[in-house]
Input
Amino acid sequence: MSRPTIISGIQSSGQPSLGNLLGAFLQFIKYQETHETFCFVADHHAITVRQDPKKLHENSYAIAAWYIACGLDPAKCTIFLQSHVRAHAELGWILGTFTQMGELERMTQFKDKSQRHAQNINAGLFTYPALMAADILLYQVDEVPVGDDQRQHLELTRTVATRFNNVYGDTFKLPQGTFPKNVARVKDLQEPTKKMSKSSDSLGTVFLLDDLKTIEKKFKKAVTDNVGAVNLDEENQPGVANLLAIYAACAGVSLEDAAAQFEGSQYGPFKAAVAEAVCGTIDPIQKRYYELMDDKTELDRIFAQGAAKASAVADKTLQDVMDKVGYVRPVSL
Output
């Protein structure tokens, strides 16, 4: 591959939020022009938390539809289901033997999910960072776009890859994390010090399937403060700063220009303008999404095409790993 390689995945659980749109989906569009881009639906990761089978099935199509509706072109990037490329699970098992218990116990997401799903603290929830490492290392990627909450997983991936390389020789490329500076880190509209989560059903989360009136209502009720002025001050005015970041991302302007635009504005008109910018961004994406979901035959074709392309790369890495570990190659009879 002559271009640098990049990979990212989104779990097929829950409805995507505005945070997913601005922080992930829309960012991938840029990468497909400059990188060999792999975007997958992480259905294996989704089941570490108990899922309704019908919803998991539908959400797996939905994530792919959102990818494409937001502008990803299957002719320019590789879109596939994690479970359709068996090398992910196989390498995940092998890398699990190179991942230490203490390293897994320190994973903050394991601690968080264990508290939120105390009735189902399963082995997969504990060991999924090894599968995440496999997701990345299979494709010999150069870069992995990550948010602050994923830095720990990327560092573990590099640690496991180095450990394997030290035993068996140069096998895995060590991926670098990319931490985009100009990406909106969307916060909850009701609790603007917390990340907007698709697992929340509060008024603070804007879902991509919300109708436009619901979106307007959520922004109208967004938490601000008693200052009464629109300032770019995340420490003292986190709610206002969050709304400015959302507006800037949707309007395609800098944070500074957004703040200057609303200088002297009252909160009511300011919130209305942010809602209008968000609705203008989401509306055409929603329409394309519904078109795609009405034609799952086309999505199946994209999945098949993507899995074939991804497997051609992943299987090569997996076979190299299995040979070095000492597995016997199967023989066709």
